[in-house]
């Protein structure tokens, strides 16, 4: 009888550990509202826009030549795969951490040239205060680095930033973070499917 | 006669010492930046150095590398890339790349963009990169 009890306890712990490793986070994102503007310059409130939707969110700046395009491309591949399988209740969100340069029209152009389907993908621009506050909520670091002046005097700068895609469930709870540029697409896709079930 | 032949051989062979292959560029919108990638193969017997890249399609072009500290990524200008004899260097996403800044026009998927690569020994090599 004693051995049987031990087995039940061990089995329960293993199940709990298994669940935890699949979705290691459970952070409620509804406690604070953030005002943003989408790629069409329409005001939106985060987290209202993600309500009742499994959401894949990425953090980018459009002057990034290497990492952010990879992150965006990975999200694009997931969007295409979900679309192919008629799974359209997943929202994609890209938040710029460079509000000085990435105005909504710039974000729209960035998305358009990458053939992104805006039907379930929102690009978000916010003022410095809202942007920094949301970045903090997601533990994202973004700092200006290498500066260069073009010959017309305009300043160009790079950014050092967290390489991140995050997955949020349909109750607006942050469930898992991934390396944006190097995410395992199969893992992310399967996690989306698991959250949607 | 032999001297002339030797000079001609050197001239004609030097162009093949550095071979550029698998070049491609990411799409990018006007006024924004993008990255160019390729592999440099050095078939020669001496090391060579890529020290500059030019294109008419951008305001500025720099040789960069991406680096990471934990999950925080950054990039920095490295100025040049050395290629040892008999070896190759791959410029690829997340590593060394050519940063193409302030595009003068949109680069869409399928577009072909010309670049001039400048090497210390091989001189100027022109390439065409397709956007994908």
Descriptive keywords:
heterodimer; A: 197 residues; alpha+beta; Glutaredoxin; 6-stranded mixed β-sheet; two-stranded antiparallel sheet; 5 helices; 36% helix; B: 132 residues; mainly beta; Immunoglobulin-like; 10-stranded mixed β-sheet; globular
Entry summary:
The complex is a heterodimer of chains A (197) and B (132). Chain A is of the alpha+beta class and 197 residues long. Helices cover 36% and strands 28% of the residues of chain A.
Tally of contiguous helical segments of chain A: 5
Runs of chain A in which pLDDT lies below 50 for 5 or more consecutive residues are: none
* Share of helical residues of chain B: 10-25%
Number of helices of chain B: 1
Strand content of chain B: over 45%
CATH topology of chain A: Glutaredoxin
How many domains, in number, for the residues of chain B? Answer: 1
| Subunit arrangement of the protein | heterodimer
Pattern of helices and strands of chain A: HEEEEHEHEHEEEEH
CATH architecture call of chain A: 3-Layer(aba) Sandwich
Distance between termini of chain B?
50 Å
Tell me the greatest interface: A-B, 33 and 33 residues
Sheet of most strands of chain B: 10 strands, mixed
CATH topology of chain B: Immunoglobulin-like
Task: Compute the number of strand runs of chain B.
Answer: 10
Largest sheet of chain A: 6 strands, mixed
Structural class of chain A: alpha+beta
Verbal overview:
The complex is a heterodimer of chains A (197) and B (132). In chain A, 36% of the residues lie in helices and 28% in strands. Chain A contains five helices and ten strands. In chain A, β5 (90-96), α3 and β6 form a beta-alpha-beta unit. Chain B is mainly β. In chain B, strands 1, 2, 3, 4, 5, 6, 7, 8, 9 and 10 form a ten-stranded mixed sheet that branches. The model of chain B is unreliable at 5-14 (pLDDT under 50). The chains are: A alpha+beta (197), B mainly beta (132). The A-B interface holds A 62-67, 69-70, 106, 109-110, 112-115, 141, 145-146, 148, 150-151, 154, 156, 158-164, 179, 181-182 and B 26-30, 32-35, 59-60, 62, 64, 66, 68, 71-77, 93-94, 97, 99-102, 106-109. β8 (155-162) of chain A pairs antiparallel with β5 (72-77) of chain B.
């Amino acid at each position: 009888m004693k051995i049987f009890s031990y087995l039940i306890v061990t089995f329960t712990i293993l199940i709990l550990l298994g669940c935890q490793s699949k979705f290691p986070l459970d952070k409620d994102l509804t406690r604070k509202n953030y005002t943003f503007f989408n790629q069409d310059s329409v005001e939106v409130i985060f987290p209202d826009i993600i309500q009742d939707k499994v959401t894949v969110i990425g953090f980018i700046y459009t002057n990034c030549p290497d990492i952010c395009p990879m992150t965006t491309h990975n999200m694009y591949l997931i969007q295409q795969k979900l679309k192919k399988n008629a799974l359209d209740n997943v929202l994609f969100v890209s938040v710029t951490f460079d509000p000085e340069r990435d105005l909504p029209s710039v974000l729209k152009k960035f998305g358009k040239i990458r053939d992104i389907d805006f039907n379930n993908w929102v690009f978000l621009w916010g003022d410095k205060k809202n942007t920094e506050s949301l970045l903090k909520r997601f533990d994202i670091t973004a700092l200006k680095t290498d500066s260069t002046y073009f010959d017309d005097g305009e300043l160009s700068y790079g950014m050092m930033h967290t390489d991140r895609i995050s997955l949020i469930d349909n109750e607006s709870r942050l469930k898992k973070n991934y390396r944006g540029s190097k995410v395992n697409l199969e893992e992310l896709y399967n996690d989306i499917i698991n959250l949607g079930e | 006669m032999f001297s002339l032949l030797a000079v001609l051989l050197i001239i004609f062979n030097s162009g093949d010492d550095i071979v550029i292959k698998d070049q491609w560029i990411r799409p990018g919108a006007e006024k924004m930046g993008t990255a160019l990638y390729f592999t440099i193969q050095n078939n020669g017997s001496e090391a060579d150095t890529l020290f500059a890249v030019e294109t008419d399609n951008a305001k500025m072009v720099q040789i960069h590398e991406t680096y990471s500290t934990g999950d925080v990524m950054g990039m920095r200008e490295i100025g040049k890339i050395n290629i040892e004899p008999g070896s190759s260097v791959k410029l690829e996403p997340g590593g060394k790349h050519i940063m193409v800044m302030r595009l003068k026009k949109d680069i869409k998927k399928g577009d072909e963009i010309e670049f001039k690569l400048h090497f210390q020994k091989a001189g100027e090599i022109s390439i065409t990169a397709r956007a994908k």
